[in-house]
């Protein structure tokens, strides 16, 4: 077992009391609950069987029955998706993943964020068809049963809405829990058929360069995607976190485009039209484009750039006095693996490298942690992600200077939390 | 994109038509759905908007609402845990994970297997306490809130009941779907506090060698565990697949003992009694021990040895004629990483190495796949796992010779599926 902490262990490696990340592996961070761990009360030593009437009820009678499909404890009923966004027309809006309540890198499917334009279709899988046509040698039509017979792959991948975190463009910092600000991103183990196999089977023409993907929702939502990306690493998602994917995530079939904005991961996929130019649909012209200060607009900005945020401590939570804390957060990049996450407790003057939980995978959430000795004084916490391409998550002022504030989409600036002397935490631009 | 299959690609690497696993990475396994992919019907080409009254209803009206916590499609309502085992006394039994319906390595929490002795306690986390006492310098008592402040780690780990697959000891091969035979094993991303940190804080005496772990169910289920293992890599599990763990999996707190039999992963953990000898409780003497041919019994057989099984094709499923199939299955080992999985289509005469899906992690499910050209003739499929220690999953006759057939626990022999000329699949001893 690891020993107790030494003076050296407690020597900060950056301003504001940030400690060496290796401390987390050493163990012995007993200060983390100094006031939590007391000596055993008489009541507790007595707690050894035989039981006492004072013991909690569940020790006194046999518990509940077996269930065919389990659900969270009733004591966790407040850990839910926060439904918001534009509510008209009906079916057009979002629900947010409560990132502040979660741990690890897997988002439970029941809490995966939602972004629908026309509600959630209730699709009978035996009636659903996927069609691949256009510039192909042999147009193809597949039932779901057909697709389940193809070779499959599994990948842990995040999906993030292109509009996630867009409150960051506001002139004043929004005060919300992390999930209701940045929670249009979730991460699952997706299993499905590599799209390249089906494109091979259809025989794509040499003149083809784009694919128009269409969903089976009432609005027939469609987007144009470069053939090269789809052939490189896209897949037809059939399973999410081990089971068939959920209706709100595209049941029975969803396009999975690793690292690219959520809308390209077309749900309820019914058609792949191979062509030689984009369709210039509503969702790639009127929306999901970004007006720049120059007056020009960025279009087809598919890749989600590297991003990170601290989920604990975070707004809505409260510090419990000067102590050693474990700063926890998430980082991800649409360009590949996260190479490094740094945290700052002095508003970005100095930084300490955070510990990354293995496995660190491309286009997947990476959980980071860093030990912090908070002295009870006002502090500003930040996290900064660097991905394997060398891309570094920008400070907000840099992002705003480059993009202006009309862009609305693809906000990935460094997030700052202010901790005051009362342990209250707020979102600040700093 | 990958090209079409060549003669070389289709040259078997083992008897019964097993093909080279690299074929799965090459793509172009179009034969897998030769009869599935036809040319586009008039109805399908017509399917481009505008819609036709003949199109399915979900294309004609806005779909369902956003939900705060999602559930599987109603069309998947038969994918459930299969409740079985001894039903008296109430609360004593099992429910099985439907392994044949799942993909990837994550088991959805709602389908994680259950093994309870006294039902599922409905625990109020604010009233729950964990006590560490006995041969320690300072007995400790923790609330759940206290524990949530400690440094955490996340690990993808399987948990397998020591009695899983025990129908394999029967004299005749049981005919059931894979899940109802081998489904007392599941795999989750567990997040919690390394136990070594709390043992350090309590200050374990030099004379201590065992820990008696006790749960907060009505039976106060307890087991004795070597201190060395708990200090090495055990953790207090607080989260499962991202969210707080489910009531049937130990909410609010479970002991996680990587690679060791399920009962050691004590649910609803309330007490860790540090001592210098095992308690010799009912669950380590009358049960969870194995009578050997010699008349002696194996006790404290904690580690789950390497095991694998083919989930598709498997009993209850049906072949769809001579074709190229992807054989899919799961492998795991309580001793570390899976190093290799081999599959046989000729009853074990010859073997081909299967492709292992990354990431391959210690004490975690590993998904394997192998391409198979089935010629329509009777075949016997097997899989054989080898772990990083060099341990090889044994044939059934070898296991039975060593352990006899009264052992009941720790059955991990090679599993054999017979495929007949009609494509029916049965469990056989071969």
Write the layout of secondary structure elements.
2 copies of one chain form a homodimer.
Chain A: H1 23-26, H2 42-46, E1 82-84, E2 93-96, E3 114-116, E4 129-134, E5 140-143, H3 144-148, E6 153-160, H4 179-182, E7 185-194, H5 195-202, E8 210-215, E9 222-226, H6 227-233, E10 235-240, E11 243-244, E12 254-256, E13 269-275, H7 282-285, E14 290-291, E15 297-298, E16 307-312, E17 323-332, E18 338-344, E19 352-353, E20 355-356, E21 366-374, E22 379-387, H8 396-403, E23 416-419, E24 425-428
Parallel strand pairs in A: 4-13
Antiparallel strand pairs in A: 1-2, 2-3, 4-5, 6-7, 7-10, 8-9, 8-13, 10-11, 10-12, 14-15, 16-17, 17-21, 18-19, 18-22, 20-21, 22-23, 23-24
Description:
2 copies of one chain form a homodimer. The first copy, chain A, is mainly beta. Helix content of chain A is about 10%, strand content about 30%. Chain A is built from 8 helices and 24 strands. Chain A has helices at about 25, 40-45, 145-150, 180, 195-200, 225-235, 280-285, 395-405, and strands at about 80-85, 95, 115, 130-135, 140-145, 155-160, 185-195, 210-215, 220-225, 235-240, 245, 255, 270-275, 290, 295-300, 305-310, 325-330, 340-345, 350-355, 355, 365-375, 380-385, 415-420, 425-430. Chain A has a 5-stranded mixed sheet with strand order 5-4-13-8-9. In chain A, strands 6, 7, 10, 11 and 12 form a 5-stranded antiparallel sheet that branches. The radius of gyration of chain A is 24 Å and the shape is globular. Chains A and B meet through strand 2, strand 4, strand 5, helix 3 and strand 6 of A and strand 2, strand 5, helix 3, strand 6 and strand 7 of B.
